[in-house]
Amino acid sequence: MGGTARVIQLDDIEGIACPCGWARRAFSELPDAPASVHLVDVRADAEPHHHDAHTEVYIVLECDVGGAVELDGERHPVKPMTAVMIGPGVRHRALGRMKILNLVIPPFDPSDEHLD
Question: For residue 4, what pLDDT is reported?
Fold first, then answer.
């Protein structure tokens, strides 16, 4: 049966700037990948944005005391091991410094990242 399998060391990937801070993105370049995975270092002043087609799942690994995620203007407190699902069209941003794993379905496409 054979399918696609890849092993990637996220902290070896070079980070690139994104509305949240710095992202290390894996698997978005694979044509048959169902999702991409990003290790994101969120800065304190993340920019509100949305996606028309992507669903994102944030898994908080580390965060400052008082960290939160803003979803359509509503603040939701988070702490390590909090999971947040963000559907298409939801305006969102992280509040406070944090490190997250971000699962993006379908794989991330930069043309579907819209700043408010």
Answer: 73
